[in-house]
Specification:
Elements (H helix, E strand, L loop, with lengths): L1 E7 L4 H12 L4 E7 L4 E6 L3 H10 L3 E3 L1
Antiparallel strand pairs: 1-3, 1-4, 2-3
Length: about 60
Protein backbone atom coordinates (compact mmCIF):
# COMPACT_ATOMS: atom_id res chain seq x y z
CA UNK A 1 0.00 0.00 0.00
CA UNK A 2 1.27 3.47 -0.87
CA UNK A 3 0.60 6.62 1.16
CA UNK A 4 1.62 10.19 0.38
CA UNK A 5 1.85 12.88 3.04
CA UNK A 6 2.57 16.59 2.74
CA UNK A 7 5.74 17.60 4.57
CA UNK A 8 6.52 21.26 5.22
CA UNK A 9 10.03 22.56 5.88
CA UNK A 10 12.28 20.41 3.69
CA UNK A 11 14.80 22.71 2.02
CA UNK A 12 17.71 20.48 0.96
CA UNK A 13 18.77 16.92 0.16
CA UNK A 14 19.75 16.39 3.79
CA UNK A 15 16.18 17.27 4.81
CA UNK A 16 14.82 14.68 2.37
CA UNK A 17 17.20 12.07 3.78
CA UNK A 18 16.20 12.91 7.35
CA UNK A 19 12.50 12.50 6.53
CA UNK A 20 13.12 9.26 4.64
CA UNK A 21 15.18 7.83 7.52
CA UNK A 22 12.50 8.79 10.04
CA UNK A 23 9.77 7.17 7.96
CA UNK A 24 11.78 4.02 7.23
CA UNK A 25 12.23 3.53 10.99
CA UNK A 26 8.45 3.14 11.42
CA UNK A 27 7.23 -0.45 11.72
CA UNK A 28 5.55 -1.57 8.51
CA UNK A 29 7.40 0.82 6.16
CA UNK A 30 9.25 -0.94 3.36
CA UNK A 31 10.34 2.19 1.45
CA UNK A 32 10.09 5.97 1.81
CA UNK A 33 10.82 8.71 -0.73
CA UNK A 34 10.79 12.41 0.12
CA UNK A 35 10.59 15.22 -2.45
CA UNK A 36 11.36 18.70 -1.12
CA UNK A 37 10.20 20.46 -4.29
CA UNK A 38 6.79 18.79 -4.14
CA UNK A 39 6.76 18.97 -0.31
CA UNK A 40 5.70 15.33 -0.12
CA UNK A 41 6.84 11.99 1.17
CA UNK A 42 5.60 8.74 -0.33
CA UNK A 43 5.68 5.63 1.79
CA UNK A 44 5.28 1.98 0.79
CA UNK A 45 4.12 -0.54 3.33
CA UNK A 46 1.46 -1.12 5.95
CA UNK A 47 2.29 1.55 8.55
CA UNK A 48 -0.52 3.55 10.13
CA UNK A 49 -0.85 7.16 8.97
CA UNK A 50 -0.67 8.44 12.56
CA UNK A 51 2.68 6.71 13.03
CA UNK A 52 4.04 8.30 9.85
CA UNK A 53 2.93 11.76 10.92
CA UNK A 54 4.47 11.29 14.37
CA UNK A 55 7.80 10.16 12.87
CA UNK A 56 8.01 13.19 10.58
CA UNK A 57 7.07 15.60 13.35
CA UNK A 58 9.60 13.98 15.72
CA UNK A 59 12.24 14.59 13.03
CA UNK A 60 11.43 18.30 13.17
CA UNK A 61 9.15 18.78 10.18
CA UNK A 62 5.51 19.71 9.89
CA UNK A 63 2.84 17.55 8.26
CA UNK A 64 -0.15 19.32 6.74
CA UNK A 65 -3.45 17.87 5.63
Amino acid sequence: MSQTITVEGMSCAHCEETVEDALEAVDGVTEARADREAATATVEGSAASDDLVAAVEDAGYEVSA
